[in-house]
Design a protein that fits this description.
mainly alpha; Rossmann fold; five-stranded parallel sheet; 21 helices; about 5% strand
């Protein structure tokens, strides 16, 4: 035990300290989980039907819809059980997520079967922010949300989209409490996570969660295990059917908001641009850019924090390798995609956004043919006043901890940096 601690201490000195430390309660829970797993207790079931039956019982519904979720779910469970090596907390969280997502599918199909209006909701021209992780998309998303015509779904809605939200219930719906139990409690136990990425049930959030509902997500499940049988599969899948299922969720989210237009964001889109364009040929795209070295370090730190909470063992170098495996090809491929796409795309540089937020947001809406309300400037300025930089603490990280180097990354991404005139930032901390 002492030699292991000395090795961990040496690694921390060389590579920097982990981004979070779990509280004693979680460490104790996970210690019990190791013993329970030896007896097959509180472990994940390999057979998807186990969870599908539970979801049917809970909802008293049977139709999971046209998208085949059984095979993706089976592959995801296999990775969670064998590749990710989840702690007890991770296994509990994964089980809750599986049941919640299966119930979401059942409830969505019920909505389409019983309410003919939902299938007629027009979601063909969403505004979608595409980017790599950690590029300031949360900031831009919230600034655009100050427009009175915008519909940007909140986290609790993305986790439980059905029945469709009514505007008058956005801050009182019972599903908010359920979302807070799942995520709010963790943030209260591990406050360092707030500085890395802050979640709140009532805050608008990225639409990655909708792909999680159908267990076909190139971001969430792949990131948890770095590389796995699941990522090997999902990165070779045609994602067009997944986007068709995603579109049905968007229709439910917009159902009770006539006259509003969707503004969405997620790093997952840049991993599957061809499918996005095939299913949404009228989408309006904002391509957000930031120094890729800064984005890489921040993303790796966030990923490690999530893995510390969910897994028994975390390898920072494997996280760095995962960044290069998933995101480097996506960034470089976005160059050729831009040369061929027929979508309307606006480029936004993170540094320019921070320096001139009102000007940038106004230009986006004007270029996309949306009216710019007089109150928009005040809304943006008010949001920035109420949410200063490092509102929840300073997020510090080191590229070297993940086996990465700023200068080497800049050289590797030089074609991307030159093509989009990306502003580079200072040395990583």
């Amino acid at each position: 035990m002492r030699s292991k601690k000395r090795a961990e201490s040496f690694q921390n000195e060389v590579m920097g300290t982990p981004p979070i430390r779990l509280p004693l309660q979680l460490n104790a829970l996970n210690a019990v989980g190791t013993a329970l797993r030896r007896f097959g207790l509180l472990d994940l079931h390999e057979d998807p039907e186990v969870y599908m039956r539970r979801a049917r019982r809970k909802t008293r519904l049977t139709d999971f819809g046209p998208f085949d979720i059984k095979d993706p779910l089976r592959r995801m469970i296999h990775t969670m059980k064998h590749d990710a090596d989840l702690s007890l907390f991770g296994r509990i969280a994964a089980t809750q997520m599986i049941l919640r997502n299966l119930m979401n599918n059942l409830l969505l199909q019920h909505e389409f079967a019983t309410n003919p209006d939902v299938s007629r909701v027009d979601v063909e021209e969403p505004i979608i922010i595409i980017c790599t992780p950690r590029t300031g998309s949360t900031l831009l998303h919230n600034l655009m949300n100050q427009h009175e015509g915008v519909r940007a779904p909140k986290m609790w809605e993305l986790h439980r989209p059905c029945p469709p939200t009514r505007p008058e219930d956005e801050f009182t719906d019972e599903r908010i409490k359920l979302s807070d139990r799942e995520f709010g409690m963790f943030y209260r136990m591990v406050p360092e996570m707030r500085a890395i990425h802050f979640f709140a049930p009532e805050a608008i959030e990225e639409c990655t969660h909708l792909f999680g509902n159908i267990f076909t997500c190139r971001l969430s499940f792949s990131t948890l295990a770095n590389s796995s049988s699941y990522s090997d599969w999902v990165f070779h899948e045609d994602m067009a059917d997944a986007y068709r299922a995603y579109r049905r969720y968007l229709q439910a989210l917009l159902l009770n908001y006539p006259g509003k237009f969707l503004v969405l964001k997620s790093p997952v889109h840049i991993l599957q641009l061809d499918a996005l364009e095939a299913v949404f040929p009228k989408a309006k795209i904002i391509h957000l850019h930031r120094d890729p070295a800064t984005a890489a370090g921040s993303f790796c730190s966030l990923t490690e924090a999530v893995q510390i909470a969910m897994r028994k063992h975390v390898d920072p170098l494997a996280i760095g390798d995962m960044w290069k495996t998933f995101w480097t090809p996506a960034m470089l491929k976005s160059i050729s995609w831009r040369e061929s796409t027929k979508l309307q795309v606006i480029d936004v540089d993170f540094k320019h956004l921070v320096k001139n937020p009102v000007e940038i947001v106004n230009r986006i809406f004007e270029d996309f043919g949306k009216p710019v309300p007089d109150a928009l400037t005040g809304g943006i300025e008010g949001y920035l006043d109420n949410h200063p930089k490092d509102e929840y603490g300073l997020h510090e990280y080191s590229l070297e901890r993940y086996g990465l180097n700023r200068e080497a990354l800049h050289e590797e991404y030089q074609p991307y940096i030159e093509r989009f005139s990306v502003s580079l930032e200072g040395k990583s901390k």
